[in-house]
Amino acid sequence: MKLVRVAVAVLNQTPLSWDENLANVLAAVEAARAQDVSLLCLPEMAITGYGCEDAYFMTGLQDLVWSQLERVAEQSRGLVVAIGVPLYHEKALYNAAALLVDGHIVGFVGKQFLAGDGIHYEPRWFKEWPAGEVDSIEHERADGTVEHYPIGDLVFDVGGIRVGFEICEDAWVANRPGTGLALRGVDVLLNPSASHFAFGKFAVRQRFVIEGSRAFGVAYLYSNLLGNEAGRVVYDGGGLIASGGALLARGRRFSFHPCELSCAVVDIEANRREQARRGSHRPRHDSDDSVVEAAFSWPSLYPAAVPALPRSWEDEAHVREEEFARAVALGLWDYLRKSKSQGYVVSISGGADSAACAVLVALAIRLAISELGPGGVRAVVGFFPRLLDAIDQGAEPAALVRAVLSCAYQATENSGPVTRTAAREVAQALGAEFHELDVDALYKGYVALIEQAVGRAMDWKRDDVTLQNIQARVRAPSIWMLANLRGAVLLTTSNRSECAVGYATMDGDTAGGLAPLGGIDKTYLRQWLRWMEHTGPEGHGPMPALSFINAQQPTAELRPPSSAQTDEGDLMPYDLLEAVEDSAIRDKHTPLEVLLELMPRYPQHRPLQLGTWIERFFRLWCKNQWKRERFAPSFHLDDRNVDPRSWCRFPILSGGFERELAQMRAFVAQQGEHTTTRGSLPQP
């Protein structure tokens, strides 16, 4: 029996933050040592941070990488440690993993499959390492000595236990390297990853880790990054350890700690015996010069009961709601501390979007306090005197929220008592600083100014959009002033549905430096707010004040009250808008294909009405790409993102799908010919 105590660490790193990143790495090494771990897997690009982008080509970066790696090696005596690094070799940069054994660098493995879709641009910086190739890399140390290290498609024989690598994307492809490594007798597969959060993605990771451990007959160690690393992407952590098809350890996700360690004991001999019993296992026996031997003495362990995995919110019914709350809250917390901002400001309208932004900021503060404690929060917000003072005074969570979050309701003559009350009730329930600003005089002043310039009076029949937009825009200067006074980040409250169709006023309600809702649709957001009202995240409970928000129909509240303006009246039903967006943008269907897909799903709407809404979507989508180019950065939450800088690219100028829309109109006309005998078609 050969038992080995192993661990994976998830780390909250920051691109090019050398001291902080090194401190987190060394903290993980020491935590592993304290728990008698022999083998530790750290994340992909743990030295530099994953999101360095074009700075990967920065002069001197490799010197810093090597010096940091040597520091980690020095501190890892008595352990086997895997860590991700960018490595320059033969006029190319590789996404690599280094294996350190008992204080020495013994070699590097290059990533064979690069992530190049969606938010990933690895082929811009890195080259894929060819399967089966091995080389030697030369490095001159600071003392002038020259070292040579093997690099490539390697297997490491460490004290009689064979170790191999799949680096992040390597495990997501059909012909994953683990298949060949299993035939080369690997006992442990290490996966240093930087796998961003997306709804439902963690379940996929668990499947390939568990199945990899079973199919390859190995212990499989999966480490990941954690937190808002570089601004847009949130990593959820969640280290995994599986052996022989059984999940042994599952780390916490969305932790506010800089490092989380997950440990387990794996039985190397049991996996070997299981592979030997399989008739399908066909090991390679040819001479293999890609095996690197390293001496290491594995401690003797004795069998012990395997602890059951603890239950958490991961195992409950509302995983998606919990994921959204925790992902965005962690993203906001990290953005605050890494940008060293003095809080957040929200122009709270009394509607769903701005209320959700305020709730998520408050949740970020409450989660940080509950996980880190006042002392832990104080240790990372030394740049934030107002929050430090609140902590030192022993303030309750609501008072800490007030130190971070400021909200302002900005009324014009078209604002009503329902939204005013809703804004005030939500802000007060959260503990936020709250202001009521009357911007009606500013609005009317701009109207009078332009009326004088153009020589005519403006009215709602002729100038509807102009009169709406100026109300949104006059709210921007005052809310920006409030953010400037506090040294805070102004949050843009637009959601993904609005981004898709441009239902937002540039330099008005799009004002801000960060858009936490830019990756989520309005239908789900309203559902989440109802869940927050009645249930809320595990350990934090419901928020009844959101009833003031959830009782309303969404409205921009920019037309006179007599018009009874609603968002869905201006656009279309939100659930249908999301369905059109998914089919047209995510699935890349033509207008006619969208119509044919939606007709059986929405039988209550006639083809002409559906066609009208679909055409409206396509025209608004094409017309408003320039707006999507200018929206504030948002968090990536799934593959429905429409952010052109991180996921969904589209030309600013295009043909506008004219031929495709004409094809759909012709089909609708044909449907009309067959249905006119049953009554007239509804008008759009």
Indicate the CATH topology of the largest domain: Nitrilase/N-carbamoyl-D-aminoacid amidohydrolase
Strand order of the largest sheet: 6-7-5-4-3-2-1-16
Number of helices: 22
The major β-sheet equals:
8 strands, mixed
Strand content: 15-25%
What is the average of the pLDDT values?
A: 94
What is the correct CATH architecture of the largest domain?
4-Layer Sandwich
Secondary-structure class: alpha/beta
Shape: globular
The CATH class name of the largest domain reads Alpha Beta
What are the low-pLDDT stretches, counting only 5+ consecutive residues below 50?
Answer: 674-684
Helix coverage percent = 40-55%
> Which assembly state applies to the chains in this document?
single chain
Number of strands: 21
The CATH superfamily of the largest domain is known as: Carbon-nitrogen hydrolase
Distance between the termini: 74 Å
Radius of gyration, in Å, reads 28 Å
How many separate domains make up the residues? Answer: 3
